[in-house]
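REVIEWER CHECKLIST
Item 1: Sequence provided? yes
Item 2: Single chain? yes
Item 3: Sequence as submitted:
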Amino acid sequence: MCRFTTLIVLVVIVSVSATPMFPNKKTTTTVATTTTMAATPSPTTKGIIIATTKEPAMHFCDTLEDGIYAKPTNCHHYYLCISHITLTGGDCGDLAFDPACPKELMQPCCIDASLVDCDYKPSRKFTRLVEKKEQQDKRKFNNNIAADCISKWVKNCSQRILSDPELHVLARGLNFAVTEDEVPIVEFITATESACRNLPETQANEFRSKVVNLVSKPKKIDSNISKDERKALQDLRKDQSIRILPADKGRLCVVLDTTEYHQKCEALLGDTNIYKKLGKRDPTSRYKKNLVSVLQDIENEGAINRVEYRKLYSTAENSPKFYVLPKVHMKLNTPLRPIVSCIGSITYNCSKLVADILSPLVGKTKHHISNSQQFVELIQDQRVEEDEELRSYDVSALFTSVNVDKALRIVRSRLEQDSALGDRTELTPDQIVRLCETCLKQYFIYNGDYYEQLHGAAMGLPLSPILCDIYMEDLEQRAIATAPHPPLWWFRYVVDTHCKLKKCHSQEFTDHLNSLDKDIKFTTEGEENDSLAFLDTLTVIQPDRSIKVIIYRKSTNTDQYLNFSSNHPIDHKLGVIRTLYHRADTVVTNLQDRVDEKAHVNNALVKCGYPKWALDKATEPKTHKTSDVGDKRPNKGHVVLPYIKGTSEAIRRTFSNYGVSVFFNRLAHLDKSSCHPRTRHIRKTLQVRYITSLARAKLLPVLDSAKKPILAKLNAL
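Item 4: Structure as written out by the authors:
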């Protein structure tokens, strides 16, 4: 080798890691090239010749993964020793080990290190970049999820033993959004075309061009979960023996065996007083025919026009889906809450319309509570004397217990007495009630079988909460008006109530409540250690009989919030901090308790990955920018964009320059990978149809040869 005056020496350097590398382990190699070398090297230099060639374009790749690793003296890098190879061509695939290589040379070093001058020392800049990358990966994937947090955030009730990556990925929360592998071009272009309808043709073409430039050159998308966690997520999704569900309350991820899940669901559906099994035949066409008949009658009566009819008439025929959520906060046998997801069903649009019409009828009494802040304002100056007590009431299974016929009679009476009904709609009380009856005749599919709900209202239908609230208002008014000794105060939020009454009249009033309606059964709880929980507040009676309020957390509370590494806009994450601080400021009445609550919030957010700068930024005073009235652009509608970090923010700025408001929507999150069957809206299908008919006509002329990936995606639709 020393006969050559110049040699091109290729040295494969494998950086030292925490774990020693072995010949049978695949690795990615870095090739360092030395173009000139003296014929007689210095005897003090260190290194290993691995190959010689006169071709500078020589390329080494992972085909040499089975080579011999050697670590020369006084060198902090491993070198791949492949001196005995047969060079049969110019491609790395043609390199092979010489079978005649003596076994005694198959040692940690098979060539004298003094032959070559290749004392490699990485630059300081390279070392800093490597250290920075390692720190970023550590922060990105570990997120410091402690073992005690995992045990609080994931409850495994199945027979499957979850691996560490599976536990870590589930501990991030089912609302954790995973970064996409590629930019969803179809969604971005659909939103662009939707916004262009309100722009002049010249501005629309300019607008399209800017959006295309941003979409065609997206920023690099870094994964926010490790490869092991991504594989664990795929394994969980493929495993049909388990069900991954969010808890009914407490933000807990629950893993159940599929057999146990079906057994509990079938036990609920086996109640023949509430549900009726229809069989395997899809009844959607029959229910749709009934809805069309009612809508046509209302249109013929002149209450709605053709445009409104088409909005209420559903072209989709998706069957509502039945699923359950485990009530882990109830310790006895973990009961389930039945829910019927009606999104995309034939009655969904009508139900939303009727709910909007009926919502002003709710909250007309002094007993109605809108939120915790209003509740605190009403009781913070009150007192509880020695002969008085605080008590709360709840209704068991309100939605399936409500008598729909009674509820509709109450609705009709309220509508007839509502003088402002004509300002909200042209529908008459009779027409509204007919729509209610049609929407409340609910059916659903579960495990391939169809069922009909005979009693109550389905939780998951937009109309159901409003109907139940109106029903409870009527019941509480009758209860208080007819009670021999009514409570001194009575505050209600849907089914949860907080009242003060005389101790001697407590049982009397409880019996009176349960005697008013055979379908509604009240359960009650009294004070515990001079305190009573209501919603997310804890009312505490102090020694002087005054009241203070603090934040209440159940024993099953997990203190889990949106993980900071989730693929959500930074505004959403800062909003989590501001919301928790706002609750502490408006609900907690004592100053020291307020300080303690904020300290508790900070500790919980740190466990969810929130850095100090985010906590400081969210709590700093807001500065409102002043702008001239003439600078304000007219609002030209709004669009919903999928959130891709870096790309979506740039596109939002472009939209805002044209007066279009932007809202972000997450694409892939763990909830969609879980097994409870929430239906997806058919909007995406409609978007694809819209793109195929419109984008080719107006957007494709904007595309040039540099946007071939976008063009290929559009042609594939």
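Item 5: Key structural point noted by reviewer: Confidence is low (pLDDT under 50) at residues 1-120, 672-708.
Item 6: Recommendation: ____
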